[in-house]
Design goal:
CATH architecture of the largest domain: 3-Layer(aba) Sandwich
Helix content: 25-40%
Order of helices and strands: EHEHEEHEHHHHEHEHEEHHEEHHEEE
CATH superfamily of the largest domain: P-loop containing nucleotide triphosphate hydrolases
CATH topology of the largest domain: Rossmann fold
Strand content: 15-25%
Largest sheet: 7 strands, mixed
Radius of gyration: 23 Å
Shape: flat
Number of domains: 3
CATH class of the largest domain: Alpha Beta
Number of helices: 13
Distance between the termini: 29 Å
Number of strands: 14
Length: 395
Amino acid sequence: MEIGIVGKPNVGKSTFFNACTHGAAEVANYPFTTIDSNKGVAYVTSRCPCGELGLKCQPKNAQCVDGTRLVPTSVIDVAGIVPDAHMGKGLGNQFLDDIRRANVLIHVVDASGSTDEAGNPVKRGTHDPMEDVRFLEREIDLWFVSLFKKNWEKFSRKINLTNANIYQVIADHFSGIGITEEDASVSLRSLGLDPERPKAWTDEDLSAFATDIRIRTRPILIAANKMDIADEDVLKSFVKELGNAVPVSAVAELVLKKASTSELIHYVPGGCDFEVLGSVSPKQLEALEKVRHLLKRFGSTGVQECINESILGILERIVVYPVENEKKMCDGKEAVLPDAYLLKKGSTPRDLAEKIHTDIAKNYIYAVNARTCRRISDDYELQDGDIVKIVSAAR
């Protein structure tokens, strides 16, 4: 699971989820609407090579809209979090199990300040959204601390008695929350903690380690939601202070997605405007014009920016297009640029082969840059937008 959408109840998480997945998560004005986690597919947007090459692409795993390729990625709408979730209160256990599976978190915050700490509606501007940011980070930190403390005595003794590699012990013990040996090594060095004497670490040391590991393994992007009703000065100050926040109106994006699906408008996700296509009622037109005004003020609804920044920015993914025929840029059935895959930055042609199919990876021979029709080395680091032919004995 790539993206986890998190936040306290009633801040617009399910609306955000529906807006980026075209899903149908239940939406209501009360806490704990989301009981079971909703899973879906969101889409990263990237410039498709079809325009550059003068081709009409035929995508299989997503759409191409006016030269903008929609590349699928997985997303989960996590149950709302309440105070002491790390102790299992509310839906705390489910919340923590859900974020265990996510690589990056989008924290949806009510930037208008119209929901209290428990997610109940209050007068707009009476709740400080910064408290929600600190609250979520604190709950995850406390969860990590509780996991570390649970068996810390046991495996710190093991390290002292057997001279085991502490980085490997930590990675093995906490593999369920995605901690690697590199994470542990970098974190301990940055904090100045002695890897050979873990029994000497204090509670403060463990807390600092938990926070550092949380930052490294669960990066968070803030979706400053309800920008359409938030005080503009407060919103600007909130976004500036955080540095990792995007102004968002999930409601506006959902309106655009529904209108686009109904073919009432032509809209490219993340766009700054849209075109009305069909006959719309006066009420529909009024709603659309309100959204258009919002787009002029902010440049977009912010939803697509959150998805792109999470995947392409924070997780450093690139988009790569595999083909079987480098001259026609097509697959074996002559579908042009049929697939687009998200890979980690630094991936090689063999990694692409593994993404396509394990048999192709096992029987990998070499790869070709489809643009130049030249063979590329096995250790070549794929670049964003590369078009690659994999030659394999499995084909």
